[in-house]
Write a structure and sequence with these properties.
The structure is a homotetramer of 174-residue chains.
Chain A (H helix, E strand, L loop, with lengths): L11 E5 L6 H16 L3 E4 L5 H11 L3 E6 L13 E4 L6 H8 L2 E5 L3 H12 L4 E4 L3 H4 L2 H8 L5 E4 L2 H12 L3
Chain lengths: 174, 174, 174, 174
């Protein structure tokens, strides 16, 4: 049997989204998941319910691949649209694994778990796109000054489609 | 030999502070470290240099105990005022260990690592006091709406002394 | 668009194998990877070189899916047969993520990293199959007494094919 | 106020010991804790009950300092002889933090959690002393061959006092 020639890997995009989400956040997360799958990206998320589940469902609607990085040890906690549940058992420290695994991050909605992933993504040099939630907060002049000082790439999108485009553009040439 | 009766444990306060800090942040961190030690608290930090080292130095000036939760495996990375270096090897995921170990958190300065600790602390239900840095950002009406919705305890201090008082007050009756 | 009905997930089997491996270990790891893929399992490994790469190559030869749980932040460290690199940044603590993510574990070869994964897998209640390496050590009467006392499922295989069969049999009815 | 001159840090020794322990293991753990404290070492453990609690109690009987690296978020899980509980929330991955934080490890008893700490300690280049439990297993010719091949320092002690001496001797000149 010949040695298989590996194909180039698809881009991995982390979607950071709260379990307890508003209707708008759910719709946005689903549209982002769908958009990422349509562009051939692998969607990585926290794997649980709420807007995480919406993002995974969107990706599966478009035939994409989804990875869920769970806080606990039981894969039954994964939403049904997670193809590959990772059982980290790490609790909230799994947010750092999510932020590191995405080559870029898209954050939807306003939970503090999501904020931690945004901050960890920036800390690791990943481009981070915000849609709603923390976008107006982190787009303030004060926040801009704090993040610019260290060369972080923090972008704000107005629509799910723009969020997908900004994330892919930030990785172009990668 | 009789069984030793354990004394009540001192409070553990996490000081979240950047390695790359301004002079004001360094002075604030040192004053907070000193203030915590004067009040009998154990200071927990990320253990490295910059404002983390300033906080530890302040605590040791007042005879306190300091714990440093390092990202790597080598205790030589700890600043010299860390009594007990913890070599986690966890990289940025060590921020979650810091946020969880502090019974309350005080954040000084504006790094994104510090922001991740603030967010993780709130996620875990810890009271978080901000001095400078992210304080104006997270005190905005938009941020307030996002964090209030989930009952988080996010407080802003005007001085190092007030930061110490707010953290201890938040734990009173604990 | 209709809600996609999720298919049942394939089994995830963790292959624990050293980076520094003998020729026999490399051949065994490749045969196990191939056998798991032929049985429709997703292969999870530490994602690096040596016997980890051999296992992934075997799985890809048979058209399987491979996940690599890396210790660092750079996906360039993944071997070319990893479909989905997870950049944990956790150092050796990633071994716990690997042990937890596999529904069963197969350990090839004799490194101490591999031994840690075997032990963590048992600790988490996962069935663990040994091929070579630690098999004679952990099959001793003394080890048997220690692990039996706690109801662990530690199995020894004589061939790669038997290792795959034992892992799947241990999960039958799961 | 003058800059405090930091004193050299005491050695940190990790005691790896099961929660579910025999009477002999409990007595051994307590004697090791006492012996380490008498020699001025800081005792690091998993912080829970059983032989972990015995080791901490022994250290406190001799006036030592104890650090407990807990798997969860609640410091109430710490045994009463832990001076400084670390709430990692990392689950079993906290074993890697324990193994990395100890400059040397002493393992008492035969649990698989303990075995994972032994293996992780060896993986990180720490000297590891075994008393009972895994000692006869890992002292076998087969195990010796596996660990010797990579230059690991795995030592067996016959008594608690010898375990303390071997750990300190392994760090002499450190």
């Amino acid at each position: 049997m010949s040695d298989p020639t590996p194909a180039p890997r698809p881009l991995r995009i982390a979607v950071c989204a709260p379990g307890d989400a508003t209707d708008v956040e759910l719709a946005d997360a689903e549209a982002i998941g769908r958009g990422l799958a349509e562009r051939g990206c692998v969607l990585v998320s926290g794997g649980l319910g709420g807007a995480m589940a919406a993002a995974c469902r969107g990706a599966k609607e478009a035939g994409g691949v989804t990875i869920g990085i769970l806080p606990g040890y039981d894969d039954k906690a994964a939403n049904p649209w997670v193809d590959h549940p990772l059982c980290t058992g790490l609790g909230q420290a799994r947010n750092a694994v999510l932020a590191a695994t995405g080559q870029a991050l898209i954050a939807v909605g306003g939970g503090v778990g999501t904020l931690s992933e945004v901050a960890l993504g920036l800390r690791l040099g990943r481009p981070v796109v915000l849609l709603g939630g923390w976008a107006p907060v982190l787009a303030s002049a004060e926040a801009h000054a704090l993040t610019e000082r260290q060369g972080h790439r923090l972008l704000a999108a107005a629509t799910p489609a723009e969020a997908v485009e900004l994330a892919l553009a930030a990785l172009a040439g990668h």
